[in-house]
Design goal:
Layout lengths: L2 E12 L2 E12 L3 E5 L6 H8 L6 E8 L2 E2 L2 H7 E4 L10 H11 L4 H14 L15 H14 L4 E5 L7 H15 L5 E6 L2 H7 L2 E6 L2 E7 H6 L4 H6 L4 E3 L1 H4 L4 E4 L4 E4 L10 E13 L2 E8 L6 E6 L11 E6 L5 E3 L4
Parallel strand pairs: 3-8, 3-9, 6-7, 7-8
Antiparallel strand pairs: 1-2, 1-4, 4-5, 9-10, 11-12, 12-18, 13-17, 14-15, 14-17, 15-16
Helix pairs in contact: 3-4, 3-5, 4-5
Length: 335
């Protein structure tokens, strides 16, 4: 594969404080990299730095095709889609062609090149509609079509699914995956949602406090967090220190892998068992969340079980949270 965009020792800061420091990052042509992190981690700052836009002080290099690139070269190669789609007055078709028009393409040619992307994103039938009448999901599809129409060598997506309802988000993720699979474009997706990373990205970088804490194939990063902070990001939110498990080292587990049992029920051999008291039971549609306060103290443990899985339990009930050994991950307590 050919490296399309990357950076070396990239720093963004205000006064004497670093907001972001990425020592090394590359994205290949035809690859999607997800940058996953909590709010305030520096995800959007990284995207803006790669695009060479904005005013904060920078140091280091942004690379295009493996070579240092100035702002003009980077901006010519990049198209971006923001969290909130920005559409101009006029029709959907005019908005889809707007990026090409800004790059000097004639009106007829811009229309010819942009219409197929509206079709690919499922909004071709809306081409003649006033863009201001679109739903949030429709508007985001148009914004993505506009970005793709310019034929970008690099596509930057800044939480493009935020604010969409679950069904709309799922449909758009599926359609975008189908589109990206056929492109030679290097794509960087900024998100706080591990499910989006899993659906779209071959590799994932976990960004914590402005630094990449873990980076690798998405399936491995999501399944094998490097430390406690990374574990929280990828959904292993239950922390199980030695005081709870009797084992050495910190273990983590996903709520969906934790099960509440009656105190007199014996867990399978090898499972971790943590006695405690039910703090609350919250129905969540197809499932139920049960939070348990460990008997020996510490943070509550969350269990996600199918509907009906809380039968016989109520607030204040004694219980024991069990986790199969195969579902536990060992991590260092601090980065």
């Amino acid at each position: 594969m050919t490296v399309r965009i990357g950076c070396r020792d990239l720093r963004v800061g205000v006064r004497d404080r670093d907001l972001l420091h990425v020592e090394h990052l590359d994205v290949d042509a035809g690859e999607t990299l997800a940058v996953l992190g909590p709010n305030g981690a520096g995800k959007s700052t990284l995207l803006r730095a790669l695009a060479r836009i904005g005013r904060p002080h920078r140091a280091g290099q942004v690379l295009l095709d493996g070579r240092p690139a100035d702002a003009r070269a980077v901006r010519a190669a990049v198209a971006a889609v923001l969290q909130r789609p920005i559409l101009r007055r006029g029709t959907v078709a005019a908005n889809a062609a707007a990026g090409l028009r800004l790059r000097g393409v004639g009106r007829a040619e811009a229309a010819r090149r942009s219409v197929p992307w509206l079709d690919a994103l499922g909004v071709g039938h809306l081409a003649g509609r006033d863009a201001r009448t679109l739903s949030g999901g429709e508007a985001q599809r148009v914004a993505i079509a506009r970005a793709l129409a310019v034929g970008p060598r690099v596509l930057l997506l800044d939480e493009p699914f935020a604010g969409l309802d679950a069904t709309t988000r799922t449909d758009l993720v599926a359609d975008l995956r189908a589109v990206l699979d056929d492109l030679d474009t290097a794509t960087v997706l900024v998100t706080h949602d591990r499910h989006e990373a899993h659906a779209l990205a071959g590799r994932t970088a976990l960004l914590v406090a402005g630094r990449i804490r873990q980076h690798g194939p998405t399936a491995r990063v999501l399944d094998r967090p490097a430390d406690a902070d990374c574990a929280q990001l990828v959904g292993c939110t239950n922390l199980l220190p030695p005081a709870l498990t009797g084992r050495s080292g910190l273990l983590v587990a996903r709520p969906e892998h934790c099960r509440p049992l009656r105190l007199d029920d014996a867990p399978p051999p090898g499972d971790v068992r943590v006695p405690g008291t039910v703090r609350r039971i919250v129905p969540l549609g197809a499932g139920v969340r049960i939070d348990v306060d460990p008997e020996s103290g510490g943070r509550p443990l969350a269990c996600l079980v199918p509907a009906g899985g809380a039968v016989g339990l109520q607030r204040g009930s004694p219980t024991a949270v069990t986790v199969a050994n195969a579902d536990l991950r060992a991590v260092p307590p601090d980065a």
